[in-house]
Amino acid sequence: MAREFQEIQGFETKSIHTADPRSEVFGSLTVPLYMTSTYVFPNAETGGARFAGEEPGMIYSRIANPTVEVLEKAMAELEGAEAGLAFGSGMGAISAVLIAMIKSGDHILCSDGLYGCTYGLLTMLKEKFGVQFDLVDMADMERVRAAMRPETKVVYVETPINPTLKVVDLQAVADIAHAGGAQLVVDNTFMTPYLQQPLQHGADVVVHSATKYLGGHGDLIAGVAVGRKAFLDELRFSTLKDIGAVMAPMEAWLILRGIKTLSLRMERHCENAKKVAEFLHQHPKVTNVYFPGDENHPQKDLIARQMRGSGGMIAFEVETLEGGRTLMNSVRLAQLAVSLGEATTLIQHPASMTHAVVPADVRRDEMGIADGLVRLSVGLEHPQDIIADLEQALAKISEPVATGSDKGKGPHSAA
């Protein structure tokens, strides 16, 4: 079991010491990896008591595993939550949380941008089970209030939004959600608990794709939810156990290793992204840049209040879909791949990749994802090497599309 660390305030210290295995009989410095599917009961009475919930202890690794349990407690500590629950993927966490919160006929109100697979899940829930959902521009609180219904049970938010990087005022949305009897669920994947802690701004449940920054090395698939212990205990013995999106102990072990360096990596991601964004703003073939760290960002005050840093994600536009393809086919250092948050810089085209499942009119008109939008996950390489790679790739686009005052005028641009 992990030691209590209430006296320690620094996130960096918590990320290293929260997962402390020193109660283990062999004194292992790192958390042991428990590769077991089941657990032996000392007697029939103990087995019965554990299944009845009358006695703590391991039963079966689809429900709990000692290595996974250490990760769950560590994530709860880092997010300031009562408890955590691990899943086999980020979508496993999202689907388990939403299914536990809603029933047929309920309504989910969403930020006007969502990960494509989250949109796909919501569409499936609507078509198969009659769960309604709407997207709303959460920059306008009056629109959020107007979109709430008596049957709204969940308000679901990404902030910054994938891939447009719009920022949502979590406390304002939480107040509206709670006044309407709904719970606020926040996807905190882009920020991690180092840069943003939504529970401190009114959220009820926070979900992560731990595949991304938490793992940090592009070598695992995993998800995590944090929130109130009573709710997550219910999830453990319902949607996790019965649907089975279970995290393997090896993935938990790798994430525990990853979060020890999370603060260092996120600082470097932020620094690199700021330099890359400055370069993109000045490039004549880039029409718009979307980056929370821009000095003149229209939501600068909110970002300073809610976030500790800008994150490592940038979205930018070139004039045409063909120009975006030329760019992505011409990079040499950056890798053309979906996902984000690892050491390597990754570049991808949301309209044809991560958000292809979203109907084109919804993608363009409601989510603001232009056909020429490119998403860049800025890695840990030297920033000048990343910039040089983008510069030579942008040069392959045949004609400049904007100059001078014509560039950088998008709704979330700093210009």
From TrEMBL:
InterPro entries: Cys/Met-Metab_PyrdxlP-dep_enz, Cys_met_metab_PP, L-Met_gamma_lys, PyrdxlP-dep_Trfase, PyrdxlP-dep_Trfase_major, PyrdxlP-dep_Trfase_small. Its EC number is 4.4.1.11, 4.4.1.2. GO terms for biological process: methionine biosynthetic process; transsulfuration. It catalyses: L-methionine + H2O = methanethiol + 2-oxobutanoate + NH4(+); L-homocysteine + H2O = 2-oxobutanoate + hydrogen sulfide + NH4(+) + H(+). This is L-methionine gamma-lyase. PROSITE patterns: CYS_MET_METAB_PP (PS00868). One of its GO terms (molecular function) is pyridoxal phosphate binding. Coiled coil: none annotated. Its cofactor is pyridoxal 5'-phosphate. Belongs to the trans-sulfuration enzymes family. L-methionine gamma-lyase subfamily. The keyword Lyase applies. Keywords: Lyase, Pyridoxal phosphate. GO terms for cellular component: cytoplasm. Gene3D superfamilies: Aspartate Aminotransferase, domain 1, Type I PLP-dependent aspartate aminotransferase-like (Major domain). The keyword Lyase applies. Pfam families: Cys_Met_Meta_PP. CDD domains: CGS_like.
